Amino acid sequence: MSELESELVRRRLTKLDKLRARGIDPYPHRYRRSHTVRQALDLFVSSEQSGACEPTTDTVSVGGRIIVFRGMGRATFADLVDGSGRVQLLFRRNNLPDLYDLLADLDIGDWLGATGPLFRTRTGEITVEVRKFTVLSKAIRPLPEKFHGLVDVESRYRQRYLDLISNEESRRVAVLRSRIVSGVRRFMESRDFIEVETPTLVPVAAGATAHPFETHHRALDRKLYLRVAHELYLKRLVVGGLEKVFEIGKVFRNEGIDLMHNPEFTMLESYEAFADYNDVMSMVEDLVYSLTAEVLGSPVVEYDGRSIDFTPPWPRLDLCAQIREHSGIDILALNDIEPLKAAMKSVGVEVSQQRSWGGLVDKLVSARVEPNLIQPSFLVDYPVEMSPLAKRRTDDSRLVERFEGFVAGGEICNAFTELNDPVDQRARFEEQEALRDRFHDEEMDRMDEDFLVAVEHGMPPTGGLGIGIDRLVMLFSGHPSIREVVLFPQLRSR
User: Fold this and answer.
1) By the 8 A CB rule, do 284 and 464 touch?
2) Are 113 and 199 contained in the same domain?
3) In the beta sheet, which residues pair with residue 71?
4) 181 in the same domain as 307
5) How big is the chain by its Cα radius of gyration, in Å?
6) Which segment of 57-71, 103-117, 411-425, 463-477 scores lowest on mean pLDDT?
7) What DSSP state is assigned to residue 93?
């Protein structure tokens, strides 16, 4: 804390002592509002529309944070903000003979309850004419000097509460995110899916090609991991006869941090018995389209200077054909690592960080195909090496029934016709284990023996889906960085 900040805190502590010396509790247990700010403003507008000559309202009680003080002799104006909006307060000495001097011990940032009628000033602003007020919380630390639109990115992320106080856009995104999650939940329930909860601490971090976070449970004396996906536990439930299940929750992947990635992020995963990846594609289109209508009022979103139209149907694009079109490489004809690596180098794709054949293909897709997928699109039919949990195509065993959804050059979802052959699934897991031993620094899936035992009891044909909630919020809010849509993103140590 700087010397100036220390002095400001000292002054506020002195004012706190003065309030207590007056017999005022600066941190009362409760306060009963009659109206939010928005409700109070709407009440006054209704009064105006009723035709009253000099519209005013009955007494209202509002509560919020003071963000502006303007003293004018025997009158003081203040701006009060709550979660619904902002309203002006007017304190007149003649209305507050026993309380007016108390204003000297209040500061910007304090929480206040105010009671009085509403009227419109000569400048046209709807205002509460305060007849009584209550200190709700004395702020000891001052708000940053430039808190009106806090712009320092590091401060905004580390002290999100200051960001929410000062930036209307941050509050908008927080509310938008909540509405998106609620909308997803309503959509899934409308299709008879049931919401379930699966373990966050797991003995095997399987279900995705990702490095896990690990911890140790003292009482059990065993190593546990933070889940990297919901998938394998949700599919256990399908085996158990819950035919339509979904979960919205955090998953954790020990990976890098960039504009699109945060080590913990929110996923919707769903599994539907008697469905395949074509059914899931249709559901994704309907889900996202319905969300745009419900949350934004239009299927067209402005993002990064482009108009994105989520109206179905979205094109289904063959993955291998798209790779050939945008790189000239036929990956199915280059089924060994070195020939594929040489072909990628020849077209200028960096390959130094990739070791496995599947990793090379994934890099090729991200470098040459994804940047061209601006409008909502599905890439379909992936090589089996990239998809250990997906069912093979009946007409080409080199490929699986998998799709990923892309918008604005970024992935938003991943889905399969789920592999329900326990013999094939065991062989895929064993291959993943062998690849991880060989390429230990590359992300691979893991053998989960308990899951295999579940599938050996019989899993029906199933369509599975994973959608990144953070990516949807980024698209809907127009923000290219995941840190803008996660309230508390992971950051480096100071």
Assistant:
1) no
2) no
3) 76
4) yes
5) 29
6) 57-71
7) G
Say whether 64 sits in a helix, a strand or coil.
strand
Is residue 16 included in any domain, yes or no? Answer: yes
pTM of the entire predicted model:
0.91
Q: Which domain holds residue 17?
A: 3-142
Two structure tokens written together for 210: 């990702």
Task: Establish if 9 belongs to a structural domain.
Answer: yes
For residue 293, the 8-state DSSP code is I
Which of 58-72, 119-133, 134-148, 445-459 is the least confident region? 134-148
Q: Is 168 helix (H, G, I), strand (E, B) or coil?
A: helix
CATH number of residue 205's parent domain? 3.30.930.10
- 8 A C-beta contact, residue 274 and residue 460: yes
* Residue 147 scores a pLDDT above 60: no
Number of domains in the chain: 2
Q: 132 exposed, middle or buried (CB, 10 Å; 0-12, 13-18, 19+)?
A: middle
| 174/114 same-domain check | no
Average pLDDT over residues 328-351: 95
User: What CATH number does the domain containing 123 carry?
Assistant: 2.40.50.140
Q: What proportions of the chain, in percent to the nearest 5, are helix, strand and coil?
A: 35, 25, 35
- Residue 150 maps to a domain: no
Burial of 257 from C-beta contacts in 10 A (0-12 / 13-18 / 19+): middle
H/E segment holding residue 280: helix 277-291
Strand order of the sheet with strand 222-226?
Answer: 201-202, 222-226, 214-217
